[in-house]
């Protein structure tokens, strides 16, 4: 039996990568690069031999869900953690010698802070005062002379004992440091902002409509609810625009009417002046001598000024008293309202079912503190965006935003506004040059 041998030589199809033209018939059948097609056919044959084409299989045939896990791997990881430690702890423990980049705005090279540089005082000259003193010493005029006086006491005698010395030498008693008192609100439990008053869990469980592969009924119900909310918000926006338009039209109409009224008034005044000009008789002019007012003296002006100042001070003090009283009353009312709200919330919690949890979709009040509560992100996939494969899944949501809003809704913290740069008081330092004001005689 003859032995089968593979064909010798190059078995690839004739190919030519730089082919100038393909207009002739010979160029259609040979010298064509088919290596990419040949490679694709070989990969397809390999996939068919190994069980089928991967692109035509379902996700259930390609992936499996491991619900047990590898026991040996868990033991190995536990041993590595006890011996070596976590990589996260190692990364956190590392500290760079280079300081972090500050987030504050820094001035450029050409800008200054307005502070004058410190100038060194000159020491190679003599002041006018020192020069005058040296001249007096040269002339024999000494300012002070030493006079010898006999001592009238014994420097080696023991000092007299002071009766108050014992009290002075007594050890000082250390003052106990008083720790700051914590506020009463630290002992109170936070009140959640849910409508039913129940506490909201830190990690709420999503409903069926939030799933990436939801049931038809749950998805349809959630889609209808979100659509109604969007329609209501659009309706309110259109109503606000219509009200603004009506307001602007009314303002423009009133301005036009006012201009027309002013024009009619000016025209009527001009007609009256032109009608009655030159028709008044000379007898109608009556000269009335009014009594000239007496000029006030300086003492009267000072008296009036003092009286006005006293009246102003009295009004200011009365207004400040009313303001302080109103502020105290406002604080008292705020405390009473807070206590009532807390009592109502606790009463709702006691009356409601113990197994029920709070819902952050409907809140008890929309504002806590000075700034408004951030709105919850809309995490809804439209019907044409639903996918039937996990490989084409697009994750949505932001865990950081969800966690921050959950803390605000649970009443742990008030909503704040980010202030990237804090304004600082501007300072200006100047140096007086009085030490340069000298004269030489």
From TrEMBL:
It comes from the Eukaryota. Residues 1-29, 161-215, 255-326 are annotated as: Disordered. Residues 20-29 have a biased composition (Basic residues). One of its GO terms (biological process) is rRNA processing. Residues 8-19 have a biased composition (Polar residues). The keyword Nucleus applies. One of its GO terms (cellular component) is nucleolus. One of its GO terms (molecular function) is 5S rRNA binding. Keywords: Nucleus, Ribosome biogenesis. Residues 297-326 have a biased composition (Basic and acidic residues). It is found in: Nucleus, Nucleolus; Nucleus, Nucleoplasm. Belongs to the NOP53 family. May play a role in ribosome biogenesis. This is Ribosome biogenesis protein NOP53. It comes from Canariomyces notabilis.
